[in-house]
Amino acid sequence: MPTAAPGCVLVIFGASGDLARRKLIPALYELAREDLLPQQFALVGFARTPMSDEQFRAECRQAAQTFARRGNSQFDPQIWQRVERATYYLSAEDYGAAEAHHRLARRLREIDRIHGTAGNRLFYLSTPPSAFEPIITCLGENREIYRSENGQGFQRIVIEKPFGRDLESARKLNDLLHRYFDESQVFRIDHYLGKETVQNLMVMRFANSIFEPIWNYKYIDHVQITVAETLGVGSRGGYYDRSGALRDMVQNHMFQLMALVAMEPPVALDAISIRDEKVKVYKSVRPIRPGQVDDFAVRGQYRAGQMAGAEYTPGYWNEPGVAPDSKTETFVALKLFIDNWRWSGTPFYLRTGKCLPEKISEVVVRFRSPPLTLFQKQCESPVYPNDLVIRIQPDEGISWRLNGKVPGGQLNIKPVALDFLYRTTFHVEPPEAYERLIYDAITGDQTLFIRGDEVEAAWAVIDPIEQGWAQSRKPPQEYLPGTWGPKDAFSLIELDGRRWMHSKDEPEPIIACSL
Questions:
Q1: pLDDT band at residue 380, thresholds of 50, 70 and 90?
Q2: What is the pLDDT of residue 335?
C-alpha cells in the first residue's frame, strides 16, 4: 500500500514552460486518476507569462488531455476537476522579485484556509538554471512569510537538472541551498531514476540470489550502457551548445545507471543507505587525466544528412542558437574503470548521442566465456558469451541471452533469449517517471533523488574530461545522422577485442558442431 500523501501545495516555478506542460501536469492527472494525490491538494503555477487563473486552468486541462499516459481518448474530466478546482496562477517578470514572493506567500495562506493544505509547500523549480539562484535566495530569505499561519507544515524544494555545469558551480549551488534548507528538504531530480526498469535494477540484483555470486569481475567481462536519441538538438541549440552530451546526459542519467549496476548491496532500502553506495561508486571511478582523454573518451558532432525514413537533418553548426565554429559534442563514448574489489579491471563502456539510428536506452552486461569450452573441438566457432540486457526504453524489460541446442539430430548451438516484458507480464503500461517522482517528493521519500555529495562526486569524474577536451586542438569527429557515431567510438571498444551491442542486433548465426 503506498504511503499516505499529506496535503500540500505544489508551486511550479516555470509553469508555462514545456516541461510543466508535457510532463508535470500530465503526471498530476495520472496521480489523481490512481487516487494518489492527497485530498487536500492545490497547484500554483508561477511564471513570467501573464495569465489569469482561468487561462492557466485551461492550459493545464489541455496539457493533461494531450500528454497524459493513457491518451486523450481516456481522459476523464471528472478526475481532472479534482486538480482544476484547486489550481491557481501568479506571474512576475523577475523570479527574484521580493514583491512577487510576498504575493505568492499571501496566496498560499489563502489556499491553506480554503483547501486545508496545512502549511505544506513543495516548491518545484522547472526553470532554466539561470533562475535557480534568485528563486532559492528569495525562498530562503522569505522563509518566515512562507510559513503557515500556525507555523506548521513542511517546505521542500525540487530542482531539475542541470545541477551545475562543473564541480565548482555544483558546489556553489549546494552551498546556496544549504544556507537556507536542510539536505532532507532538497530533492534534486533525475527523471531516469523514476523509470520502472531503472528501479527494477535493484530488485533484480538484490531480490534474486542467482546474481550476487556472479556480479563481479570474475564472471562479468564488461558492461555497456547506451542512451541513443534519433533527433538532433532542434530548438534547444542555445542551451545544448553551452552543455554538450557529456554534461547533458553522462553526468546524470548514464552515471545513475552505472551506479545502480555497480553499487554494493545497501544495508537498507532507504534513501541514506542507497545513496551512500552510489557515492562510493563515483569515488571509485578511475580518474581520466586531461592528457589521457584521447585514450578513454571519444566526442563527435553530427553533420548534415538524411536519416532513413526521416527528413533531412541540418548539421549541428546549422542548428538555431549554435555557434558556427562550435566544438560542443553531440556524441560521447567513454571507457571507465571502477577501481574496487568487485569491479577491478572490468571496463564500463558508455555511449550517448543525437541523430543516432534508434531511440533506445539499455544496459548490456556481458559475461565471460567459460574457462573451459567443452564444445571447442566439436564446433566450427567459439560458443557465444551470455548477455543480460536491461531495456530502459522502449519495450521496458529484461532479456537473458543464453546458448541452447537447436532441435534435431545434429549438435547445433544457437543463442536464445529469455525475455521479460513489463507490458506482457503485468498487462499494464508502466507509469511515467514523473508520476513516481512527484509522489515521492510529496511524501518526503528521497530514495530516487540525488544527494548533494552525489552530484559533486559525479562532477569530479567529468571535469578532467572536459578540461582535456578544452586543452585539445582536436575537434569533435564528424558523423552522419543515422549512424552510431564517429569511427573512433568503434575503435574505443574494438581495440579491446569487443564490440558495441544492443537488444535489436541481428540474431547470431547457428554454430554447427559435430559429436
A1: low
A2: 98
d(CA 60, CA 26): 8
- Taking 50 as the threshold, does the pLDDT of residue 1 lie above it? no
**pLDDT at 492 exceeding the cut of 80:** yes
The verdict on residue 71 lying in a domain is yes
- Which residues fall within 8 angstroms of residue 412, CB to CB, at 6 or more apart? 405, 406, 510, 511, 512, 513
Which member of 115, 191, 222, 253 is catalytic?
253
Query: In sequence order, what are the residues at sequence separation of 6 or more whose Cβ sits closer than 8 angstroms to the Cβ of residue 56?
Result: 15, 45, 87, 88, 89
pTM over 0.90: yes
As a whole number of angstroms, the distance between CA 196 and CA 431 comes to 7
Nearest-angstrom CA–CA distance, 146 and 149:
9
Q: Are residues 148 and 73 in the same domain?
A: yes
Encode pLDDT of 421-438 as tens digits.
888 888 877 889 999 999
- Domain housing 338: 193-365+448-495
Cα–Cα nearest to 485, from 293, 381, 352: 352
Residue for cell digits 536519441? 229
Q: Are 233 and 330 in contact (CB under 8 A)?
A: yes
Q: Would you mind telling me the total number of residues written for the chain in this entry?
A: 515
Separation CA 282–CA 378 (nearest Å): 45
Q: Are residue 230 and residue 344 in the same domain, yes or no? A: yes
Catalytic residue list contains 502: no
